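can u do me a favor
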């Protein structure tokens, strides 16, 4: 639409410049000296506007406003002569509202049309001879036609603006749907790959672990070989933990659903992380008591532990110690969530972890919950992916609020247990 406007603008301005220069030539040739300077000035001005309009860096609306302001003075300058000598000149004035509404839209176009009409026609009636009924009638007819064209132009422009708005909304909605479909397809493919990797590696790790246990039974206590085998067994357990995270991301682990309080989950996770990081100051802030969700207590606590681990590591980057954990409930979800919920419910409980770390930039926030994405050189990139998988399997979502240098806040949103019992539907996407 913008390209069409520019092309039409150049065509109208070019034709107007040509017509004004020809009118100035005819005025000079046939002795109409009164209008010749005005026509020549209009032609030169429109020619300059045509040249400037070809430069895409110059605002088309700014040029159009300058042209319409110039037309006001042009009409005032020539109307004294034209109202007497050639009243049919006023019949082409309805072109003004059409052009104004096309370039500026209905509101501003109506303003420019009113300005042109209120300056041109009263001036023409003032200078028209009182005894010349035909001239005055022609002016009145031109004013009526101008008013009709203005109303028609405003109506057409309003319809065009409405159509453009609907078209933009339709395109945005289509783009959002395409992005969601692409993300869903990517998650589906990642889930299939992760499930295959987890299954194969589980089989391999079971065999390796079994052989290590048999070798440990045959090794003498206190020997060097036994220490190496114990170290290998520890590494296998760590690998098995990574595989469990992959399974959490895929969401294919069997859930043991029961009514569990968010405070209970938070205290369990805090107690576990406090043993691993005694230097951290973990503060629990309860905003609402007795907030219960329907889910697997072990998996939800594991998801919260992952967030607490990340918060402690983020604090360590800036020498901070305090990590705040908040529980509560809300009747509406935030407008934007990093992980969209898979359930619909009128009331939601939340677990929020807030650190004092360096924060997360916008580019990293887009990929936080993708498997194997990490900004920590020592990380595996599976922690937040596992959190997303666990929360999705419970019908919930995850929100992230962060700015560079101001820490980060991760919020797990879960449907309240009473509303899940009442029939809140889980939509597996």
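np, heres the sequence
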């Amino acid at each position: 639409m913008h390209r069409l406007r520019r092309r039409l603008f150049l065509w109208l301005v070019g034709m107007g410049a040509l017509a004004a220069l020809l009118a100035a030539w005819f005025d000079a040739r046939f002795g109409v000296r009164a209008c010749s300077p005005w026509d020549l000035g209009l032609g030169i001005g429109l020619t300059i506007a045509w040249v400037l309009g070809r430069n895409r860096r110059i605002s088309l609306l700014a040029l159009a406003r300058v042209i319409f302001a110039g037309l006001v003075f042009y009409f005032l300058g020539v109307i004294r002569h034209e109202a007497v000598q050639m009243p049919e000149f006023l019949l082409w004035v309805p072109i003004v509202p059409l052009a104004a509404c096309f370039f500026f839209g209905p509101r501003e176009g109506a303003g420019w049309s009113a300005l042109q009409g209120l300056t041109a026609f009263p001036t023409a009636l003032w200078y028209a001879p009182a005894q010349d009924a035909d001239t005055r009638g022609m002016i009145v007819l031109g004013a009526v036609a101008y008013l009709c064209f203005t109303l028609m132009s405003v109506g057409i422009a309003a319809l065009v603006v409405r159509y453009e708005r609907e078209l933009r909304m339709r395109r945005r909605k289509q783009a959002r749907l395409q992005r969601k479909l692409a993300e869903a397809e990517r998650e589906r493919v990642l889930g299939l790959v992760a499930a295959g990797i987890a299954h194969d590696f589980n089989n391999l790790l079971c065999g390796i672990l079994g052989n290590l246990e048999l070798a440990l039974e045959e090794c003498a206590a206190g020997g060097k070989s036994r220490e190496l085998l114990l170290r290998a067994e520890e590494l296998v357990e760590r690998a098995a933990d990574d595989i469990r995270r992959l399974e959490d991301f895929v969401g294919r682990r069997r859930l043991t659903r029961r009514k569990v309080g968010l405070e209970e989950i938070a205290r369990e996770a805090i107690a576990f992380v406090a043993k691993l990081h005694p230097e951290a100051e973990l503060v629990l802030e309860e905003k609402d008591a007795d907030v219960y969700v329907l889910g697997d207590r072990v998996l939800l606590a594991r998801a919260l532990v992952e967030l607490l681990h990340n918060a402690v590591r983020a604090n360590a980057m800036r020498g901070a110690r305090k990590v705040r954990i908040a529980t509560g409930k809300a009747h509406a979800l935030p407008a934007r969530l990093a992980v969209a919920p898979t359930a619909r419910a009128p009331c939601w409980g939340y677990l929020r972890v807030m650190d004092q770390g360096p924060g997360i930039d916008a580019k990293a926030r887009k990929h936080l919950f993708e498997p194997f994405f990490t900004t920590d050189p020592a990380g595996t990139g599976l922690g937040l992916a596992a959190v997303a998988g666990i929360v999705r399997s419970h019908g919930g979502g995850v929100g992230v609020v962060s700015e560079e240098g101001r820490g980060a806040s991760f919020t797990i949103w879960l449907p309240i247990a009473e509303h899940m019992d009442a029939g809140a539907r889980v939509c597996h996407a």
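The chain is about 65% helix and 10% strand. hope that helps!!
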